């Protein structure tokens, strides 16, 4: 009889742990999918000369390559890092 009580207790404890861990997992998953925090908007300036405009751009990994023309200066490609939100380099055409 004692063996049967021991088996019942073990089954009860394991069932409780299974249900508890499943509810904890679902709660964590629900929190991550319904994250209501918004990222703060950040205004970034590329410091382009007056009259210039962006003709084309390409994204590659965490870099953004921006072709800017006009503004009284030669055409240029701006390399912008999207993770650090910083301009890495400017390549100018001669």
Structure description:
With 94 residues, the protein is of the alpha+beta class. It folds into 2 domains: 1-38; 52-92. Helices cover 34% and strands 32% of the residues. The protein has one helix at 2-33, and strands at 52-60, 63-70, 76-81, 86-92. It has a 4-stranded antiparallel beta sheet with strand order 1-2-3-4, with no helix packed on it. Strand 3 (76-81) and strand 4 form a beta hairpin. It is rod-shaped. The N and C termini lie far apart (93 Å).
Keywords summarizing the entry:
94 residues, alpha+beta, four-stranded antiparallel β-sheet
Produce a short descriptive summary.
This protein is of the alpha+beta class. It contains one helix and four strands. It folds into two domains: 1-38; 52-92.
- Model regions low in confidence, pLDDT < 50 over at least 5 residues: none
Which range best describes the helical content: under 10%, 10-25%, 25-40%, 40-55%, 55-70% or over 70%? 25-40%
Cα(first) to Cα(last) distance is: 93 Å
Number of helices: 1
Instruction: Return Rg in Å.
Output: 29 Å
Q: Can you count the beta strands?
A: 4
Strand content: 25-35%
Q: Structural class of the helix and strand makeup?
A: alpha+beta
Give the number of domains: 2
């Amino acid at each position: 009889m004692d063996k049967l009580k021991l088996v019942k207790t073990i089954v009860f404890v394991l069932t409780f742990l299974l249900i508890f861990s499943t509810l904890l997992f679902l709660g964590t998953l629900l929190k991550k999918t319904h994250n209501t925090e918004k990222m703060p908007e950040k205004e970034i300036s590329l410091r382009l000369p007056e009259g210039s405009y962006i003709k084309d751009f390409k994204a590659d990994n965490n870099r953004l390559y921006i072709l800017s023309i006009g503004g009284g200066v030669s055409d240029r490609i701006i390399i912008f890092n999207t993770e650090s939100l910083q301009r890495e380099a400017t390549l100018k055409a001669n």
